[in-house]
């Protein structure tokens, strides 16, 4: 794994800073203990990111990013049913452009990102393609005078502008992000392909952002058309014993699906509970208390409904320092 970046600045012109980068990742994504093999993925992602020039007193930053992902996955080939033969590798090329606006003041923080992403891929003997647009808007308002208590809202909308696969497609929008729906390998999972157990309950707060561990094998709550969600969390106003970072949260979501195999063409979901939120969102543990019946029925009991998020991407210390507004 490696992340290489080169920054250079311009005293004049529309661009204040330009960053050239290459990110390389390669990890095992699946283990088959019966046939004793591992399947691996490798991503190579060159990118160019520019920051638009701003007035010296402005608290607002604007960025434009162009990114190309080359994704290579290993797959198992069987000579006969149940007889492992060899591993093969296939590749994908994903193109993405985005515009991002960030604002950080003493009382609030906003981060709005609009992206368009597309690719062509092989599915059986046919070639499928899609173009997808997403809007991810995060807002944090500090509601106490000491500025240590905040109310956070995230709005997410995803829409397939084109999608040749009239079934779900290989890369649908998902209400909950987990190892199975991390189609571009943007996040780190300890049990990316686990179907049961504690590691299968790891999630990430992108895509629909629901804090509920939908099973990896389920096609439930995924859309090849449109998805809109809202995710809310808040600090409690009082001081808690041991300074525990307990926060109530609420997830709301709506999606439509045009796949002929979809049980419903449109659906509304909600999920609410309490979270333990550590290190400004790096680690979160989520305890769902109430939710839409169809969602809660995806897991049989309270223990299996608990999920956790470990966002290792936020541990990039150099990037965190660069994002401080001075």
Describe it for me?
The structure is a single chain. This protein has a 13-stranded antiparallel sheet with strand order 1-2-3-4-5-6-7-8-11-12-13-14-15. Strands 9-10 form a two-stranded antiparallel ribbon. The chain folds into two domains: 1-76, no CATH class; 121-131 and 143-155 and 165-326, no CATH class. It is mainly beta. The chain is globular and about 70 Å long. The chain contains three helices and 15 strands. Strand 1 and strand 2 form a beta hairpin. Helices cover 4% and strands 56% of the residues.
Share in helix: under 10%
Oligomer: single chain
Shape category: globular
Strand content: over 45%
How would you summarize what this structure contains?
The chain is mainly beta. It has three helices and 15 strands.
Question: What is the element layout, followed by pairings?
Answer:
Blueprint (H helix, E strand, L loop, with lengths): L1 E8 L5 E18 L4 E16 L7 E21 L2 E22 L3 E16 L2 E17 L7 E14 L9 E2 L47 E2 L2 E9 L11 E11 L9 E13 L4 E9 L1 H4 L5 H4 L1 E4 L6 H6 L4
Antiparallel strand pairs: 1-2, 2-3, 3-4, 4-5, 5-6, 6-7, 7-8, 8-11, 9-10, 11-12, 12-13, 13-14, 14-15
């Amino acid at each position: 794994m490696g992340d290489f970046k080169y920054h250079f600045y311009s005293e004049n012109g529309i661009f204040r800073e330009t960053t050239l980068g290459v990110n390389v990742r390669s990890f095992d994504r699946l283990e088959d203990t019966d046939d004793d093999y591992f399947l691996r993925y490798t991503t190579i992602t060159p990118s160019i990111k520019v920051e638009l020039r701003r007035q010296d007193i402005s608290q607002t930053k604007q960025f434009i990013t162009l990114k190309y992902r080359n994704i290579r996955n290993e797959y198992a080939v069987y000579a006969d049913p149940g007889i492992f033969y060899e591993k093969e590798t296939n590749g994908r090329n994903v193109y993405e452009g985005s515009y991002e606006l960030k604002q950080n003041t003493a009382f609030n923080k906003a981060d709005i990102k609009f992206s368009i992403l597309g690719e062509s891929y092989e599915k059986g003997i046919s070639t499928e393609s899609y173009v997808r647009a997403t809007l991810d808007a995060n807002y944090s308002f500090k509601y106490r005078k000491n500025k240590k208590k905040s109310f956070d809202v995230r709005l997410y909308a995803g829409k397939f502008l084109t999608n040749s696969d009239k079934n779900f497609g290989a890369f649908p929008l998902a209400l909950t992000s987990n190892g199975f729906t991390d189609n571009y390998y943007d996040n780190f999972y300890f049990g990316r392909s686990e179907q049961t157990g504690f590691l299968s309950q790891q999630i990430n707060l992108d895509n629909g952002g629901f804090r509920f561990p939908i099973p990896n094998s389920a096609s439930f709550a995924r859309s090849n058309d449109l998805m809109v969600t809202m995710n809310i969390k808040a600090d409690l106003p009082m001081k808690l014993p041991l300074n525990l970072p307990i926060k109530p949260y609420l997830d709301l979501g709506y999606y439509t699906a045009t796949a002929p195999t979809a049980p419903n063409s449109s659906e509304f979901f909600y999920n609410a509970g309490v979270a333990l939120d550590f290190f400004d969102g790096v680690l979160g543990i989520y305890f769902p208390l109430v939710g839409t019946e169809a969602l809660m029925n995806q897991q049989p009991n309270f223990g299996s409904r608990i999920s956790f998020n470990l966002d290792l991407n936020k541990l990039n210390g150099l990037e965190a320092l660069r994002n401080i507004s001075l």
